[in-house]
Amino acid sequence: MDGVDASVAELRLIGDTVELLPVGHIELPYPTELRTALLDVLPPGETSAAQVCRLDTAVGQAFAAAAAHAYATIADGRADLVASLGQTVYHWVERDRALGTLQLGQPAWIAEATGLPVVSDLRARDIAAGGHGAPLAGVLDRLWLRDSTETTAALNIGGIANITVVAPDAPALAFDTGPGNALLDAAARMISGGVWHQDVDGDLAAQGTVVPELLDVLLADPFYALAPPKSTGKEHFHAGHLTAALDEVGHVAGDDLLATLVELTAVTVADACRAHGVTRVVASGGGVRNPTLMAALRGRLAPATLDTSDALGLPSAAKEAYLTALLGFLTWAGSPADTTGTTGARGPRLLGAITPGSVPLRLPVPATTQVTRVRVRANVTEKVGETSARA
């Protein structure tokens, strides 16, 4: 909930392969009042239909401003569609089943600001098909890493951490591992009385010492023992979760609390990777900008190697935005996104809903082959007779 990530990508469907060219990306912060209001409605906070309506509008307007900015600057006024993953405020999970999910950011504001069609609400159909609606990163990762000769985990460290395990001779598997930055950010707000929203660069955590008793209490949470597919969110890993754990162990100094939470993320990610024989980890998301967390991960993952997606051509700060572009493109091209084995859906599905832009909606001829590969390109040569789009 730091802000809006916007990327521009050129995508082409050539046979069964999507070629993706990252054009550029930008991160625009939320207005302070909007960010505060979003944090206030997260569990265990309470809200109302009126507040949800106001936030859906305000987030939609923030997304619209970001999309219009990226359209005018990065895309140079040339784009075919916008894809929006939305701002998650509630992910409804009971034990091992996802029952619903709510993302805010009314797409009509984006369509109005850009004149482009908008693909949005990308998670709901997956849940209706028996999946978790998350992590959708598995759609990109299984196609992007399928030619790897070793068992590789694509790790995304957002508020929640998730991995996609891609092995040479096995189906892909994707699931949430537990908190990424969620509890770290909650702790930063807790110990600063709301002044800090995060421990910048992990500086305070680096000065602390892991408290084994607190780590053991946190690791006893039943979520970690669930078999994938599984998903979670800030409705589970929030400040109340942290307070309950601290009640069991007593006072913990602020720097030690943050050090312990860094270790919690590192341990739960490493345990999940080890359980599936991972030998290489490719990380992305906001967590890679925390050197203290990356050092802890590197130590816990060894002898598996840890790198970032930048090394493979996808900017780690914008990988989720490029994922969103891919999801929108697949729907636009009429190619179902395959989340089987990752989210737990019953089969590939066309995800999302399309809001028309300023002209009547005109979709390309639907794809007739299932996409099996994503190739990230440094440059793309124009070809005739291919489904293409700039998103």
From TrEMBL:
Lineage: Bacteria, Bacillati, Actinomycetota, Actinomycetes, Pseudonocardiales
The keyword Transferase is assigned to this record: yes
PANTHER family: ANHYDRO-N-ACETYLMURAMIC ACID KINASE
Organism: Actinophytocola glycyrrhizae
Pfam family, one: AnmK
Coiled-coil annotated residue ranges, if any: none
The UniProt record lists the keyword Transmembrane helix: no
Protein name: Anhydro-N-acetylmuramic acid kinase
EC number assigned by the record: 2.7.1.170
Alphabetically ordered keywords of this record: Kinase, Transferase
GO molecular function, one term: kinase activity
Endpoints of the signal sequence: none
